[in-house]
Amino acid sequence: MNHVIExxxxxxxxxxxxxxxxxxxxxxxxxxxxxKDPKLGDFSTNLAMTLARPExxxxxxxxxxxxxxxxxxxxxxxxxEMAGPGFINLKMxxxxxxxxxxxxxxSGDDFGCSTVGKGQKVLVEYVSANPTGPLHVGHGRGAAVGxxxxxxxxxxxxxxxxxxxxxxxxxxxxxxxxxxxxxYQEILHKTVEFPKDHYQGDYIKDIAQEIxxxxxxxxxxxxxDEALPFFRQYAAQWVLEGIKTxxxxxxxxxxxxxxxxxxxxxxxxxxxxxxxxxxxxVYEKDxxxxxxxxxxxxxxxxxxxxxxxxxxYFCSDIAYHQNKVNxxxxxxxxxxxxxxxxxxxxxQAVMQALGYDRDVFKALLVQFVSLKRGEEKVxxxxxxxxxxxxxxxxxxxxxxxTRYFFLSKxxxxxxxxxxxxxxxxxPENPVFYIQYAHARICNVFLKAQxxxxxxxxxxxxxxxxxxxxxxxxLIKNILAFPEMIEKSAQTKEVHRISHYLHDLVAKFHSxxxxxxxxxxxxxxxxxxxxxxxxxxxxxxxxxxVMGISAPEKM
RNA sequence: GCGCCUGUAGCUCAGCUGGAUAGAGCAACGGACUUCUAAUCCGUAGGUCACAGGUUCGAAUCCUGUCAGGCGUACCA
Length: 554
Description:
By secondary structure, this protein is α/β, with parallel strands linked by helices. It contains 20 helices and 15 strands. Among the domains are: about 1-90, Arginyl tRNA synthetase N-terminal domain (Gyrase A, domain 2, 2-Layer Sandwich); about 170-250, no CATH class; about 425-545, Isoleucyl-tRNA Synthetase, Domain 1. The two termini are about 35 Å apart. The protein binds one RNA strand through strand 9, strand 10, helix 12, helix 16 and helix 19.
């Protein structure tokens, strides 16, 4: 909708230029915003103020000129005036809004979609937690944010695929296998020493018990070297299945699960390394192999093959990201926990070394979640086994509330998750405020239906009975939905949705308390039902993007 | 030491590509259910936007410095 106003202002500017009232040497960027006080108008622009310097004129004088040309704005502008230091405020006609509201109902589930993404192929990689234990709450934040980001980008016209990178090789897998092997023996009454750096969590015992249930004591006779591959494989599979289940439960599904192991099996890692070596970006020092990442703005070079001949995690990551580009993705978005932020320049350097633009790689950093029970801090280390799992939290407070909690805060600010509070506040959680609005609307429709009144269709509805201030406040807010989606896609700021919805719904609750929808006045009733129908579409679409349900009854 | 994130109401947070009187929720206080769901609404109270400078018509927002918290600065992942 703002685009329409932009065009309006722009054409006024052109006319002013043609008539010699303004110079306009360079076409300025036009910023449209809403005035703080709705009495001032529907839209405002600070254009005159930004033009003051290049035009060498008082902003108020410039504003007067632009106002003059805006006045005959094709019958859509009801009032235009200059205010304060040089703001230009526009008030639009009723028909301007009504015609746009009709399109909301036409679009239905597609309302909010746009084409700003231009079909760009983007791969979003998120969660990618090591399959060494169940997901904890911190992973949950990444999962909710990543999943919602995908939804937003899709709606904004990007061609999105999502992926979970499974780190199924390396020392951690050995430790996982060995931890299980040791617990297995323990349960079968063998005395073993369980090292501190092994996985302490009870789930290891569950895996071991399951192996006993299925395979009995047969591995007891085998040596560690013989037994370990089986335990490693079994435990990894078990954990990964658990992660998949937990994520599905949390309404997070991936287009692909990419195994790190396959990068070694099909020589992708060696090929990537060879390629870099050929280009001269790789050298040997102190018995290790290094990537010359400092040549690409990284603060120092990085080891990719250790002295002992093992490849580092970073090494396979190079191959993985090359693989992504080779699959045709134009933009790679990775969600990182904030503790990985040092990785960002490194990956950008990799892109450059591989011969791509460094901006092909983009990271979205998700800050830490610190868990508390009241005042008490809860540790979240997988190895110590004291963490709180995502599943536990979801079981306790529900998917909707948990997702909302993660999604309503800017992902680059630290998050305090107080378990006591989350539990206690469940009934007053803001998510219910939004869902309640949806349920209320459904109930109004039910009431109307009982009186034989249906929501009118786009073709036959007459919206001219809508004249209340609150009604136009609602309409304006509804029409801002696509812009909000666009903006959060551009900035990758997922938390905008929840704030928008909360704001929208507050206007509805207020309206609901002040005005009746179903009344004796038939034309007014029909118009209001239609307005609520559009509102319902907007709320539902917003909640869907967030992966939160829109209940019809509460 | 260096780098990234954060510092806004009692608490949890929006607002940050400079704009009009700094906003929500929770908590507190006072009102509104014979009405389409009171999981709601209306009102009151609550602020040196961490601090100090700078940039300009104008700064919570941009720049510099200081302080505080978190994270990183591995031949771990």
